[in-house]
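User: I'm putting together notes for a lab meeting next week and I want to include a structural view of one of the chains we've been expressing. I don't have a solved structure, so I'd like a prediction I can at least talk through. The sequence is below, exactly as it appears in our construct file.
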Amino acid sequence: MAHTEHLTQREAAERLEISATTLRRLTATGCVRRDEDGTYSWPATERAYARYRKRKADGSRRARKLHGTDERLTQKDAASRIGITARQLRELTRRKKVPRNADDTYPWPAVADAYQKWRAETEQRREGPPDFKAEQARLARARADAQEMQNAVQRGQLVAAADVERLLREPLERVNVIVRSLPSRYAPVLAKSAGISVAKARRILGEVSESIRSEIRNAVA
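Assistant: Thanks for the context. Below is the predicted structure for the 221-residue chain, given as structure tokens.
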């Protein structure tokens, strides 16, 4: 029998690779179930989210058959529909996991189908919680920045202010990811060493994590 974990909203959203806002919306609409104590059971939450994504993808395919054409979405709109961040979609695009049109728009629902395929393949390979952020940092740093700037030069543009801002923000964002994972990763260690419950240790580390992340947000605001 698989071990059941009870995760906070932030921890569950991180494992699903969606925002806490998206998870709250899915909970409110009944797509994902929250326990009476406010936690999310894992892997039950993961399975519920997979069913929701499948229903959404199936609906997109039916709409495509009905209308006979794909929609062309901006990066922001495509990421919002899929339920991930624009940054994650950029990385998937660079890794050629999802399609993008020549005009930099995304074909819908083809991009959603490709994302579902990538998630399914990732689930089959992994042995633990998804580590998309670590892979993102490892694979993207060496080539993504150079490619983006090269594209801007080829279009006859100067380096965009957003690119400069991203380069400045990236180190703090990586620290933010590490700090956010503290409660789920180190609560058992703190509980054992301090002689307290795991739930209490998670709350303590959660408060510490949120305090540090607040300072990071202030620094990059």
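A couple of points you could mention at the meeting. The chain has a mean pLDDT of 78. Residues 123 and 149 are 33 Å apart (CA to CA).

User: Perfect, that's what I needed.
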